[in-house]
Structures are given as structure tokens and as C-alpha cells.
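assembly run, all chains below
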Amino acid sequence: MALLEVKQVSKHFGGLVANQEVSFTLEQHEVLGLIGPNGAGKTTLFNCIAGFYPVTSGQVLFDGRDITALRDYHIARLGLARTFQIFQASGDLKVLENVMVGAFLRTGSRRKARSAAEGCLDFLGIRAAGGNMMADLPVAAQKRVALATALASDPKLMLLDEVGAGLNKSELEGLVALLNRIHRERGVALLLTEHVLEMVMALSHRVIVLESGQKIAEGEPAEVVKNPEVIRAYLGDHYVRRREIGHA
Amino acid sequence: MEAIRNAFDFSDLPRSELIIAALALLFLLLFPVLPHSSFAMATMIQFLMFSLYGMGWNLIGGYGGQVDLGKAQYVGIGAYTTAVLMIRLDMPFWFSLPVGLALAVLWSFIIGYPLFRLKGHYFAIATIATSLVLKDLFEVWNFVGGARGLEIPLKGHLPNWLYLQFKQDYYYFYVLLAMFLVGLIYVNGFRHSRLGFQLRAIKDNENVARSLGIDAHWCKIKAYATATAFVAAVGSFHACYNFNIEPEDVMSLDLSVLIALMAMLGGAGSMWGPIIGAAILVPMKSYLGDWLGGKAGMAGLDLLLYGAIIMFIAAAQPRGLYGIVEALRVRRQR
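ok done. output:
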């Protein structure tokens, strides 16, 4: 049985169509990339899956259960954790406390939440930052804290929205290794959107391409990048024609 | 069991704070035997009352970041329940206290449900409105004495522990000090609890909190109800201490604003904040009010001062005086 099943999901904002009848499945323990140019509707689709927006039509199943009408916090409790593109914190919680909030989803005990949170910080290699405020950390470390917090809530599936944004090359490599470990050692399935295509290609088993709210391609990373529809979406008609001429 | 351990666990606080707290506690315990004027004693009792109000306010206003300007309605519910039950049913304080608490908490759930659909300034304004409406209702409700209020008659010989009627103020002082300590320990447990953590996460970023499985709406209502219990308990005490209550006294907007102001001045979202705020503003209010009252045309000057304080907090340090201390400590560590 698929872990996540998205069936014919549409999301309209008034007259604006953000997602149009998007369908895909994500298998247990799979890493699925969701790519597409700016404004393709990736984040909207995330928000629909995670229950932040009500869908206009369609259905979302998670772990065999219809979650289309559930509230966001309810969906999170079922084991679907999402991270945000922009993570702002007013600075009331220290890093360890932040991660403990995630762990408190599964336990009412401060002692247990604390040891779970320390375990997650250890796992992501930022144990030493536990006593810092979020705002005092560099961006790469902040992203790790966000990951640790989501991980502490013991999810089956993590939705990662642009986790690579704003990172340099070596930081990206570190992040890819980290996500690989989260997937392999913790058995968490991943659904990630990314502008940084390299990262998606390195991680994903399969990739889905969105353009103007619609799914235009699906398949293994190496195939998808050769798909003329995908090239058109990213680079424009011009490049597709030139390729065809070149081949002819 | 762990909840009790959490409540008595002060180990995460700096040692300097614990030493100051211990000295302050010693001073409070000994205050009645030290030489003092009756005016000073009355001021001390006010200080303890406002500390408790502020500790309650801090649960939702500080840790939860929801600026609540309607706490006076719960002072009123607590005070009126105790007064009515004492006058009509001859019920002792120790029975009317939990009844008042339960009624106030019930009311807080009823209005909390719609109130917390609002955010930010809209929430703050709505809390003022609910409190004022309740006060207006009490002013025209004859059963509770209308605008003239209620007067609790003397019940037998003094001191009367059952009805909390004493001739000397130090009895009241110690009863209140006991409530203060229970409140302090409760707050310490609260900030270590799951709800405490979840509230702070909501204050940080509500969307992130929801994505971690936190039902933000319900968490706020729970914290609001807990805050209400603090305020209503002191309200019940107030009825016995004053013998006489009226809507203008226990349910006024002034009282709501003062409660929030003291907690914010001392430091919203910190354990000592409300106590620091009350320790500064209560004596200032009593002595300044006393002094200004004697001068013609100067009676409103204290209000001007409150306005200046709000502006100072908003501009300089949203986390109040305790926030300033904390910032200095962080800077020194570097």
C-alpha cells in the first residue's frame, strides 16, 4: 500500500488555478522529488497535502486514511511532518527547547522529550548548539534545527519545502548526506521540493514535475531531465526546438 | 509524579536569581514582624495580589503571547461568587473559593472559544469588550447589588479562619503569601510542562507549531482557563479582605490594564517578570497616588506615567525589565 496517495487534487484561489487535478503516489520509504519552475504550484500542493489549505477538489490519502478534510495539526499527529521555506522564530525558545516541542507530540514527559530531542540533535550533529537561540545560528544550522524538530515528532513522512535554499555547495552536500541518513537510518519517507535540481536528483528515487499547477512528467531523475516537456517548462520552447534541429 | 518533580525543579535558573529569590522570600516571611506602618502592610498585600494576578496573566499573555486586557472580569466572578455565597448561603471562604474558581473557568471556556479565533490587536480589543460587558451587566443586576455592590457582614468572632475575617492585616498577609507560593510553584511546573512548551512554540510561530501537531486554538483556551483560575482565586480573597465589593472596583478596565501592565513591565514570558513588575508598580501606585491625591489637579498624573511605561516597553525591550537583565547577562558571557 502506498504511504501517500494524492488523487486529482485541485486548488483554486478565486479564479487563479494553483493546482489542477494533480495525482501521484509515494510508496513506503520512498524519496520523491517534486520539481518545477517558480510558481508551478509546489508549495501550494504541499499546503494542500499537509492540511494548511482546504483543497478545492480531489482526495489525499495518508497511510490508507483519507486526510483530505483533517486539520493540519491532526495530520501532523498521524506522522506527516512538514518544514517551512522561511523559518522565523521570535526567539522565545532555545534550540534544544525547540526540538523538545517536536518530541512533545509523542510524550507528555519532559524527561523523555528532552532525551528524544538530544538524540535528534546528536543525530544531526548539532548537539553543541542546544543552548543557543535559533537567531544566533547560521542559516545552515537553523535548517538542521528545523529538521531535528520535525524528526523529533517521529514522522513516517517528511515534507521538505526548499530545505536547500540559501545554502552554498558544501553545505548542500552536507544536507544531502544528512537527508540520506534520515531516510536510511530512521526509515522516514521524504517528499521534497527544490529549486536546486542537483540536490533533488542526488536524493530522489523518482521525480514529479509540475508546471502551471499541472503534472507534466514523472519518472526516474535521469529520464525526467531528458523529457522535452520538462525542458520546455524550465528553459522555454526555444531550447526544445534547437535540440530537435540539432538531433535531426 | 513527574509533574510534581517539574514544579519543584528550579535547577535551570541561574544561581544568582535563586539567591535573590530566597532573600526576597525571607523578607516576605519576616515582614509582619519588622516595624512597618499599616499603609506599608496594605501596600504589601496589594503587591502579593498583583503578583498573583500577573502570574496568571503571564501564562497566556507572556508564555502564550496573547495580550489579554480583560482579566478583571474574572476577578469579579471570583469576588462576587464568594460574596454572594457568604451572604446568602452562609458558605465559608474555603468552599466558595473553589465554586468561584469553577465558575470563572467555565466562563473562560465559553468566551475563550470565540475569542481565540481572533489574533493580535483584535484579540486584545475583544477581551476588553467582554470584560466591560460583564461589568455593565453586574451594575444593573439587582441580585448582586447593582452598582452599589455587596457588603459581607461580620460572621461571629474574630479571627475567623472559616470566613477569612480578621482584624489584623498580617493574617491576610500570610494567607495571601501561602497562595503566592502555591502559585509560584505552579507556574514553575507550568513552564516545564508540555502545555508550557507548546504555548511558547505558538508564540514563536503558530504555523510551525501547528505543523508539529499542536492544536493552537485549544492550547490557548487551556492556558487562558488556567490563567483565569489564578485571577479568580485572588478575586475571592479580595472579597473577604475588603468586605465590600462593587463592579467599579473589581471589574474595571483600570484593573485589567494594570494587571497586564505590571506583568509586561517586569517581563512577559519570564517567571519572575510579573513579581518584579508588581514590586515596582504597586508601591509606586500607592505612594504616588497618596501623594498626588493631596495636590489639586494632579490626580490623573499616574495614568500619564502608565502610558509612558507602555511606550518604554514597546520601544526598548518587549520582554520587560527581566529581558534587559537577561540581555546584559548574555552579553557578559560572551
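The interface with chain A takes residues 2, 6, 65, 192-194, 197-198, 200-201, 203-205, 207-216, 269 of chain B (CB under 8 Å).

The first strand of chain B starts at residue 150 and ends at 151.

not gonna interpret more than that til we talk
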